[in-house]
Prior knowledge:
Elements: E1 2-3, E2 6-8, E3 11-13, E4 19-23, E5 30-35, H1 39-57, H2 61-77, H3 79-90, H4 94-101, H5 103-116, E6 121-129, E7 138-148, E8 151-155, H6 161-174, E9 178-182, H7 189-200, E10 208-210, H8 217-224, E11 230-234, H9 237-249, E12 253-257, E13 263-266, H10 272-287, E14 299-303, H11 307-320, H12 339-354, E15 358-361, E16 377-380, H13 387-390, E17 397-403, H14 406-413, E18 421-425, H15 429-436, E19 443-446, E20 464-465, H16 470-476, E21 478-486
Parallel strand pairs: 1-5, 8-9, 8-11, 9-10, 11-12, 13-14, 13-18, 14-17, 16-17, 18-19
Antiparallel strand pairs: 2-3, 4-5, 6-7, 7-21, 12-20, 15-16
Amino acid sequence: MTAYGHWIGGAWRTPEKGHYPVVNPATEEVVGEAPESTRAEVADAVAAAQAAQDGWSRTPARERAAVLDRIADLLTEHAERLLPLLQAETGATTRVTSAMQLPVAVERFRRYARGAMEPHTVPLAPTIGHGSPLAPGGLLGAAAVRRPVGVVACITSYNFPLVNLAGKAAPALAMGNAVVAKPAPQDPLSCLELGPITRRAGLPDGLFNVITGEYPATGEALVSHPGVDMVSFTGSTVVGKRIAESAGRSMKRTLMEMGGKGAAIVLGDADDKVIESAVGAVGSVWSFHSGQICTAPTRALVHRSRYEEVVARLTDYARSLTVGSPVENSTDVGPLISAEQRERVEAYIAGARAEGARVAAGGTRPALRPGFYVAPTLLADVTPGMAAAREEIFGPVVAAIPFDDEDEAVRIANSTPYGLHDYVFAAGAARAWALAARLRSGNVGINTAQRHPETPFGGFKDSGVGRDGGSFALHAYSELQSVVWTA
């Protein structure tokens, strides 16, 4: 078992306050020990980032791209060691770990190696400037240029720790920024492992720093530090709002990707093929990382004419899944991240039952010891006002809600505080497109739960502020500067 230090200024730093244990959600055994931060250590990480950022911002884009490509190479080279660590600290199944936890992180560094080479200057048409007390007249040229923001605090979520950090750090570094990362306390070890990998790849010391902590004080110290120019956050809406308040006091740029309560709307014209796609998409709430996905379609809104059919299919789907140890290849549904999260999810199920929902599948704790398991649960006959229909549960729980017409479907879909990712399943693409325009959601999938990696990603309402993904992430981690000159 490894006791990690902070990664500050290109070196390990022994923590002044010691360590806290990181627990495997499947075995309840300690995976490793993460460092607890002090305010002074956070300040040291920010100072290291500040000292390194200016030189990196003036480094040629081709050199920045080469470093990011080498980081991707080294992540791949170290896969044999990193994959077991990622699985142990997240509790993800073998399928999710091998397909999503590391390969997507690699691809994100590759994507933003290419992104570093994208043009960041937009030439503007010349214009005649008339003389004024400010300056004489003449022909004016101009350009809008994207410049680095400076020091970026990257605060990440526990469901995909390395993927989430790569999605922030890679575009930030590509644009010439420096990074101070603060991973989620439940599973920060793979993010700490990224520190020496960036150094081996040739990233100058101080440009990538990782500080961790079990308690909110670490993140609070980072967000409030005057040397931080931008905060990029992924996590719960409650925490995100506190971060936004703190960042706003010093006018820091923010990128906030928060909670979701995705609606999968199944229209009455859906044929068998579309219904099958809808059931598969909604079933991913159970089979894909135990529902610990902010984009998950956790509400199945089904036209009353197809409602019982879809509920029956979802019930069969849920009951067919194998709940068990994530290291077993036969396992579909692994544990939740912690005992606290399991209790939270179970409380939502009990609350829905008490409010009159019908538990069509699951609803009881699996007879598995040890581990923080919740059975795939389908709540049928849910009404829009129930907590299970309005609040993010972040577990393997689906709420099925019938509707009578499209207007009602839109009202229900838009009735939660969230607006991150919704889905429309219909036989007619034009009808689905028109319906998508009425959804207050940053992302809409039509007859699919797939995401396109180049689309802008983010949410409406309490689901966040700003967009990343593709070239839009390069925009997010930069400031626009207008440059004007006389011809």
